[in-house]
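Name: SAM-dependent methyltransferase
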Amino acid sequence: MNRGVTAPLIDLLRADLGAANFSVTALTGLWGIEADAALRRNQRVPALRALAKLRATLSVPEPNVVLAQIFVLGLPVERAELAAALPSLGVDGAEQLGLVAARPDEAATQPGPLADRAAPADPAQVAPLVDLRPYSFVDAHGAGSWWITSDLGELALGHPLGEDHVLGVGGASLTLSALMIPTAVDSALDLGTGCGIQALHAARHATRVVATDISERALELAALNARLNGVENIEFRLGSLFDPVAGERFDHIISNPPFVITPRVEGVPSYEYRDGGMVGDALVEAVVRGAADHLTPGGVAQLLGNWEYHDDDAFHRLTGWLESPAETALDAWIIEREVQPPTGYAETWIRDGGTRPDTPDFDRLYGAWLDDFEARGVRQVGFGYMLLRRPTDGRRRPAAPARPRLLRLERLPEALGHNPAGIGHHLAECLAAHDWQAGLDDDALSRSTLTVASDVTEERHFWPGQEDPTLMTLHQGGGFGRSVPLDTAQAALIGACDGELPVGAIIDAIAQLLDADAAALRAELLPRVRGLLDDAFLQPPAA
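Structure predicted for SAM-dependent methyltransferase:
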C-alpha cells in the first residue's frame, strides 16, 4: 500500500463513514441488542434477518445498511448501492484501498493475504476484502470512537483463517486497552501492533508512539486505521520483537504479544497474530527480559501473557525471567487471571483458528497439542497481566530507607470491580500509593493522615439479637473488586481515616478503648495499612 497515494483516499473514506454515522449505536439500531450479542458469538443470522426486514421497507437502502452488510457481516452488495453509501470515495476508490473486489479474478490476483478472499460471481456486485467496523470506548480521557479495519474473519471467509491473518479488536485487545495506564508520557511503544488498536489508545496519552510488527500486512492495516481516525503521532516499523527499536527507550511499552503456546511441528498452523514462533512460553519470556533495556527510568511495560506450569509453581519461573543486574532489576506486578489444563487450552486455540470440533482436522490438531504438552511436561497454562517498571534514581526519600523493589505476584481469578473507564487509573493509583508508603518508615507512616477511597464499603453480619458483628468485610467497588476481612481494631482504624487525624493517633486511641498495648497494636496494624494503601483501599495525603 503506497501511503502517499492512498492517504487522500482514506480521507475520503473517513468523510463518507462520518456522513453515514457509521457507528456502534447506529448498527445496534439496525438490528437490535440480541442480534448484536449474537454477532459477538460469531452468529450473523439474526442481524441478516433484521437487515432483510429493513430493506423490505426501504425503496433505497440507507448507507449504514449497505456498509453493515459488506464490512461487518462480510457479504456482497450491489455495486450501485456501495457507490451511494460511499459517495466521496466511490467503488473505484474502495478497490484501490483494497477494501472490496468487484470480479472473481480480482481477488485471485491480489498478493499475500488478499489471495484467498472470495469475490462475488455477479459482476454487478462487490464483495469485502476486509472487515471494517466502528469501535467505541471510554477511557480516562473520556469517550471516543474509531473505525477499525482488519482481515475478514472465518464467518465471512467460510473456512479457517490464514496464517497471515490480521486480527481485529478481540477480547485480549479490550483487556489490554482497559489495563493501559493513562499517565501522560513523551514516548510509547506498541510491540506487535496488529491492526494498531493499542497504538491508537496509547496515542491518547503519549506525545509519540512507535508501533512495530513482524507482518507487513498488519502494519499496512494499522497505518490505514491511524489515518482513517485522524491520528498522526504514530510511527510504524517492521521487525521482530525489539529489533526495530534497538538502542531506544520508551516511557511506556504496551504489548499484546503472540503469546499462544503452539506445537512447533509440521501440519499445525502458526498464526502471525497469536503465535510467536518460539517453543512454549519463550516469546513472553523474551519480551519480559527485553523490556529492561527499552524502558526509561520509571518507565512502565504492560503486556498480556501465557506461562507454563511444569513440576513447580509457574511463579518461580516468572521470577526467574525478571532476574537482571541489581541496578536494572525491574519492579514487577504479575496477576494471574486464569489457569487451563492442556485439554482446555488446546480446544480454545484450535477453535480460535476456525477449525470446527468433530472434524478430522480438529482431532489431528488436538493430538498434536497434547503430544507437545506431554513431551515438555506441561501440566497447565496460566494467563494474566504483567506490569513491569524500570527503577528510577528516586528510590530513596530524604531521611528514609531505600524503597525496596516491588515484586508482587498474585492470583485473582474473580471478576473485576466496576471500572467503566478501564482499570489503568487504578493501577497507577496503586503504584503511586505503594511508592509513597514504601518510602516511609513506620514512624513517618504513623504521622501521616490517610483517607478511605470513595469506592470502599464495609459489610457487617450480626447474629440475631447480638450487638457485636460476627463478620466484617471491606469491599472495593472498582479496581480488582477485592474484599478484605476485618477485625475490630482494623475496622475502627479504617473508619477513622478521614484525612484529619494521623494514623498513629488513631491507633493510640483504639488501643486505649480496647485496653491494648499501643506499641503492639501499631506493630500489628501498620503492615495492614501498607497493604490497604497498595490495593487503593486507603489513599495517601494529596501531594
